[in-house]
Amino acid sequence: MTLNLPPLKKPNALDALNFLLADVRGALGPFLNVFLVTQQGWSQSAVGVVAMVGGLLGLLAQGPAGALIDTVRAKRELVAGGLAILAVGSLVIFAVPTFWPVMVANATLAVVGDIFGPAVAALTLGLYARSQLAGRMGRNGAFDHAGNVFIAVVAGVIGRLFGQRAIFLLGPVFALLAIGAVLSIPAGGIDHDRAGRHDQPSRGRRQAHLSAFIRCRPLMIFAGCGLLFHFANAPLLPLVGQKLASANPEWATAMMSSCIIAAQLVMLPMALFAGHYARKWGRKPVLLIAFTILPVRACLYIVSDNPAWLIGVQLLDGIGAGLIGVLTPLVVSDLTRATGHYNLALGLVMSAQGVGGAISGLAAGAVVDRLGYPPAFLGPGLAAGIAVVALLAFFPETGAPPASPQAGQPDVIGLS
Q1: 313-333: per-residue pLDDT in tens?
Q2: Please, what is the angle between helix 29-38 and helix 11-26, to 10°?
Q3: Which of 313, 226, 311, 323 lies closest to 268 in space, CA to CA?
Q4: What pTM was estimated for this model as a whole?
Q5: CA–CA separation, 49 and 55 (whole Å)
Q6: What Å distances lie between residue 321 and 290, 293, 332, 398, CA to CA?
Q7: Contact between 332 and 349 (Cβ < 8 Å)
Q8: Which of 3, 116, 194, 250 could form a Cys-Cys staple with 135, CB 3.0–4.6 A?
């Protein structure tokens, strides 16, 4: 599949940014829960509280972060500042892995982390024309997943040689490299009108009232389904990692890395698949594939505790997450044409996803403490099944295939 990227827009800089941002985030998130439970002796419920607080604060900041990105022209500098804060937070977790320092650092990182997804999407919109957007988003996703594979391998090696705690020193290293990557994107190549999803020139452009988001039924359905998807998906990898670590404590980091690598190796081609077929088939068929995989995966985890089986089932995460990561900014872009509120809308959708992830961390930890792992897997599976039904029954096509450009187009956010 050909992406046809314009050579003057320096796609390699955006590629490097996506790759390195994955390294920064990957050196923190998936390994933190396992480290706290297996090395620091935290209870599942305590870990769930930290995850919930960080998630809730992060989701509260999603909307304001999106609105800030819509209005600020120094998007590259905003990302660089967020990366610097993230580096400091990672060092705090390494130096003082006790409850309150970890709580504060994790919450700060969750809030700052809200900047990266919308900012990269905005930079992409500002650098590429609408006709190139699906392919470029797919390429963004591919480099993101390649970065996740890389950091999982590096973290596995570092954790095995120097202990799990040493993994958190990788965050500052990759944050500095990512700062260099984002600042290498030429500021003059960014169309700031397009980066805010303005399809009209500044003069005569009309803005959408914020209440229009609530009245946009497809956007609300998509946000609700995203909430259920992330409620179901967020706890699965940490739960699998904890099961593997409890049974094989000396191989905890290596097995966690194996789970991440297994999924990310699948996500990489899935991101390219999503970019290509979201343009060819439309958005909804690809979304349905992503959502349907999740309840199947959740149920398969309870079939066996064999490490090879659990890591094999984790491959299915690559299909769902790989597709969703590309489709989310595309669907929001479809629904916010000419409004100037793309990043705000994306922030609100990601807030809904964050609600799901934040609630699920505490819920899954409490269920494991009281009932064990099988119910903790089946609950998310049920939530994912509800999301599939809602998406199939109520969500319209937002980007019709090229052969029928007028077919299935939903209402976009209304203009005042």
Answers
A1: 888 888 998 899 899 988 998
A2: 10
A3: 323
A4: 0.71
A5: 10
A6: 7, 10, 17, 20
A7: yes
A8: 3
